Amino acid sequence: MNRPQTEPHNPRSVSSDRTLFRLREMFGEDRAQVYTDHHFRIANEDSRIVAFPQSIEELSEILQLAASECWRVIPAGAGTWLEMGNRPSQFHLVVATEKMNRVLEYEPADLTATVQAGCPLATFNRLAAEHRQFIPLDPFGEENSTIGGIISTASSGPLRCAYGTPRDWLIGVCVVDATGKITRAGGKVVKNVAGYDLCKLYTGSYGTLAVVAEMSFKLRALPSSEKTLISFADGPTALCNLVAEITDSDLQPASCELISPNDIGMPVKTRQLALALRFMNEPQTIDWQIQEALRLGVNLKSMVLSGEESKTFWDDYRAGEIAAQWDYSLRINVLPQDLKLMIDDLYRLFPQANWRAHAANGVIRVHAAAGWLDEFKNRERARKLAELRQQAQSRGGQMVILRATADVTEQLDVWGEVGATTGLMRALKEKFDPNGQLNPGRFVAGI
């Protein structure tokens, strides 16, 4: 249950005044700011220095300076996901790419685009929508969440049911390593697969191997229409059985979300569980899929949301995921066939839990307000969460603590054990960042 601690390779004492002075001396007053509020907060530090490179060349020079001064660096985009991960063993500087926000190339005819890391996904997709195209990702997060942050955290949302995860759409990446070296992998066209494994490696590495600077994506055509079918049941069995039938059928929902009772994003208040199926296609194809889904769930009460109603539901659903009231957020991954058993474990350990699940993929997200664990004493809170994690691990899955109160994160590693891959991940860290400068101690296995 104890969190791993990783000591920096060079524990040289670093003055924050000197750090700020050196950054402003070399790059200008506007390139380095001191924050004392919640912006870019990592843990409970009183203040933090944030550098804002405006080009890949400046990013390279800042990381070269950091290496020469032995500064430990926290990479960031707009700073919307910095609460994720263990507390850093040490850090001196946040390097944020949010001002590197340009669309470098966009070829609608080729269905490809290259963007800088600080470009918000919502901003690019609004541009691409003018050509009836989009990057088919809808990760939960703030409107200003950057594409670089999405790639670094491998974040996805309900659309992963049909469209997959960021790894499926990234075809090229340019990164800057801890020494300031610029490296490119992959390409700018779909057929170019050189270095594709490195694209996969950087995706979801949480800035521990390098800082993502530019990315190339393949795009998809925007569907012309959408509808959402919501079915209700008293327990998870009937809805999980329906998901299994849908998976084995010709139906292709864009999203397939299982939702606990009284969810704040639901269009109606109900004490029943719900299954929300989003269909995005041509109108006739959608109507056929809705009718087929209703036939498969003939014994369930259902409702259909059309057009704007459907879009509004999913907008509200997304907003509910990141609501300010949630002080705890967990992500549990199991095999889809074990989803019902994992939900049973969740109900047994935490009967009042609010949760949602990518039903076709076996990913459960648990959200709770501050008083969720008040019935348990401090040490028992961590023990109960560790028991839930153990249930997931016993089924070949894992549980990640995305957000929690300090008494929990001080006792539990937020990532949990990763088993046989620990040695490989540490070897990769040693290869790509041997001095432990990037995100020290924040990621899996204390790397």
What is the topology?
Elements lengths: L15 H12 L4 E4 L12 E4 L4 H14 L3 E4 L16 E4 L6 E5 L4 E5 L4 H9 L3 E2 L12 H7 L6 H4 L6 E7 L5 E5 L9 H7 L8 E8 L1 E2 L3 E9 L2 H12 L7 E5 L13 E9 L1 H14 L4 E6 H15 L6 E6 L5 H11 L4 E5 L4 E6 L9 H17 L3 E6 L2 H4 L12 H11 L15
Parallel strand pairs: 2-4, 3-4
Antiparallel strand pairs: 1-2, 5-6, 6-10, 7-11, 8-9, 8-10, 12-14, 12-15, 13-14, 13-17, 16-18, 16-19, 17-18
Helix pairs in contact: 10-11
Can you offer a commentary on this structure?
It contains 13 helices and 19 strands. By secondary structure, it is α+β, with helices and mostly antiparallel strands. Strands 15-12-14-13-17-18-16-19 form an 8-stranded antiparallel sheet. The protein has a 5-stranded antiparallel sheet with strand order 5-6-10-8-9. α10 (339-349) runs antiparallel to α11 (378-394). It starts with 15 loop residues before the first helix and ends in a 15-residue tail after the last helix.
Describe this protein with a few key phrases.
alpha+beta; 31% helix; 4 domains; five-stranded antiparallel beta sheet; Uridine Diphospho-n-acetylenolpyruvylglucosamine Reductase, domain 3; Uridine Diphospho-n-acetylenolpyruvylglucosamine Reductase, domain 2; 447 residues; single chain; globular; Alpha-Beta Plaits
Summarize the structure.
Helices cover 31% and strands 23% of the residues.
